[in-house]
Inverse folding.
């Protein structure tokens, strides 16, 4: 399936985040001619060969409806399998994480936020958390027309709410364990 990207389309590059295609350039090197998608992200300008867009993992930005679903996902505690998956990916090193999907980024964020309730995150996981916030905020801002800073704050508030509920549930669990062992 060939994706048809055009100037003005909002897209996500898996390693560099969300941006807008600002130009399509034909560039010749010697006798070879190649068409490049020029993508402006919040951090830099990228050039992706049009014929390699799918192989690189370039995808359209989430719809506004999907963006709402992703924000709601940030409020749900992760499953044990999600925690194990994120920990395995983080052991592979910081270069192993790519935003293959906005859902993967949201799931990674909620796992790391949950883990931060019970322990201090290591340097690698703190970098992964910060990068994931940026990737998701960029995509959600483009999807919803929201300001980038507003998108960051919205994500952080939802994650904080989820972590607070997790912390409360963890406290009740520890209290019931202590009560069960004291009799």
């Amino acid at each position: 399936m060939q994706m048809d990207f055009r100037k003005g389309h909002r897209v996500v590059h898996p390693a560099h985040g969300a941006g807008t295609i600002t130009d399509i350039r034909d560039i010749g090197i010697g006798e070879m001619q190649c068409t490049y998608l020029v993508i402006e992200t919040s951090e830099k300008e990228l050039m992706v060969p049009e014929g390699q867009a799918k192989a690189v993992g370039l995808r359209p930005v989430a719809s506004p409806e999907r963006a709402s679903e992703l924000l709601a996902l940030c409020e749900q505690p992760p499953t044990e399998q999600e925690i194990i998956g994120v920990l395995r990916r983080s052991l592979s090193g910081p270069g192993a994480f790519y935003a293959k999907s906005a859902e993967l980024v949201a799931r990674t964020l909620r796992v790391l936020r949950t883990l931060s309730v019970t322990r201090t995150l290591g340097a690698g996981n703190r970098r992964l958390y910060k990068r994931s916030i940026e990737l998701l905020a960029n995509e959600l801002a483009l999807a919803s027309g929201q300001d980038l800073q507003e998108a960051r704050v919205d994500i952080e508030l939802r994650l904080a709410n989820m972590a607070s509920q997790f912390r409360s549930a963890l406290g009740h669990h520890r209290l019931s364990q202590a009560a069960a062992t004291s009799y």
